[in-house]
Design a protein that fits this description.
Layout lengths: L1 E6 L4 E8 L3 E9 L1 H4 L7 H23 L8 E7 L3 H18 L3 E5 H7 L11 E6 L4 E8 L2 E7 L5 H11 L6 H9 L26 H9 L13 H27 L3 E5 L6 H8 L5 E3 L10 H13 L25
Parallel strand pairs: 1-4, 4-5, 6-9, 9-10
Antiparallel strand pairs: 1-2, 2-3, 6-7, 7-8
Bound molecules: 5'-O-[(R)-(carboxyoxy)(hydroxy)phosphoryl]adenosine and zinc ion (ZN).
């Protein structure tokens, strides 16, 4: 089965053809980074307009690169949430129309689950595992039984990890996108320049949860309070110290999830999975089997959508034309799939 995957949940306009949920025949990602750069953040209205302009060309390129005609497609998978609703609707509407005109089924796919599917395109991964989904919109730790079954153990109680990277980078004008800029600057900075605080969440209720609002406030408003005086207040030092603090927060929760479940296999997905500190720290733990997607599959892409969608379509779990887009994470969303 050859599935077309469409992803327009934020600022990447992407289409991909994936065969049997595994083999990527094409994965076209048209990034809007340059469009949003002057605003140091994604402008939703601009994002949806660009998706509208680009989607047809991006899909055509994906088919061309895959070396197939649209008639050879067996189905379409499209992200229908969570994300920016105006952007999601562009991909979703296109997918509905395209599927209808070709007389093939389509299915709505959850963006968060798709991120965790990304490494499955590159590795044969056994279940169960502890999944860490870490991006600009989500920070989730869950026990994963199969591609569609994730029991959420913890999540952020305020900002997502990537969001904290983006906000700190925007405040200090460190570069855009923020996570990439901070990761790059960190390589020349000293992690000990600032001792940023660690969130003290209630161990019972929030055992696996993370919080970034305290760290963000410390970095943005109380920099001098946490500075070790022998180090300079340079962008590199701020970046390196912040990055360490931000990643250690989520690593501490991940450690608890691993200890409590006894599951030693960890799979990571989402934009922040590209972070070098996270990758190096987790991979250096010899007691764990750690799987990261390659860098192009960390960020938003159509291949992860096509890959996950293949499984629904293979089980004849199709969506109908009434399917809507939704803005917030909700695994209940899969009830919109007719079984
Ligand atoms: O998965 P993604 O492309 O979109 C969402 O679903 O949110 O993730 C984007 C997020 C942004 O917050 C971006 O700053 C962050 O991933 N990011 C990084 C790195 N590369 C991207 N954060 C830290 N280090 C990186 N190397
Ligand atoms: Zn994403």
């Amino acid at each position: 089965m050859k599935i077309l995957g469409i992803e327009t949940s934020c600022d990447e306009c992407s289409a991909s053809v994936v065969e049997e949920g595994k083999h990527i025949l094409s994965n076209i990602i048209a990034s809007q980074t340059e469009i949003h750069k002057p605003y140091r953040g994604v402008v939703p209205e601009l994002a949806s307009r660009k998706h509208t302009e680009w989607i047809v060309g991006v899909v055509q390129e994906a088919l061309q690169k895959a070396g197939i005609s649209k008639q050879e497609l067996d189905g379409i998978a499209v992200t229908n949430g969570p994300g920016l609703v105006g952007s999601l609707i562009v991909g979703l509407s296109f997918a509905k129309g395209y599927a209808f005109s070709l007389g093939i089924p389509f299915v709505g796919v959850d963006h968060v689950k798709a991120h965790l599917y990304a490494p499955h395109l590159e590795y044969d991964i056994e279940y169960p595992y502890i999944g860490l989904i870490i991006s600009g919109g989500h920070t989730l730790i869950g026990k994963v039984e199969n591609y569609d079954q994730i029991s959420i153990m913890g999540s952020t109680i305020d900002d997502a990890c990537g969001e904290a990277f983006d906000k700190v980078a925007s405040f200090y004008n460190l570069g855009y996108p923020g996570g990439v800029a901070i990761d790059r600057l960190s390589k020349k900075g000293n992690q000990r320049a600032f001792d940023f605080p660690f969130p003290s969440l209630h161990k019972g209720v929030h055992r696996y949860d993370v919080s970034y609002s305290g760290l963000k406030t410390a970095v943005v408003n109380q920099l001098d309070k946490f500075r070790n005086k022998q180090y300079e207040k340079t962008p590199e030092n701020i970046a390196a110290s912040f990055q360490k603090a931000a990643i250690e927060i989520v690593l501490s929760r991940l450690k608890l999830a691993i200890e409590d479940t006894g599951i030693r296999r960890v799979v990571v997905g989402g934009g922040v999975a590209a972070n070098s500190y996270l990758r190096e720290t987790l991979k250096s733990n010899r007691d764990l089997e750690v799987i990261f997607p390659s860098l192009p599959l960390c960020t938003d892409n159509g291949a992860m959508v096509a890959g996950l969608g293949y499984h629904y379509l293979a089980e004849s779990r199709f969506s109908d034309l009434g399917l809507n887009a939704y803005p917030r994470a909700s695994f209940i969303s899969q009830s919109t799939i007719a079984t």
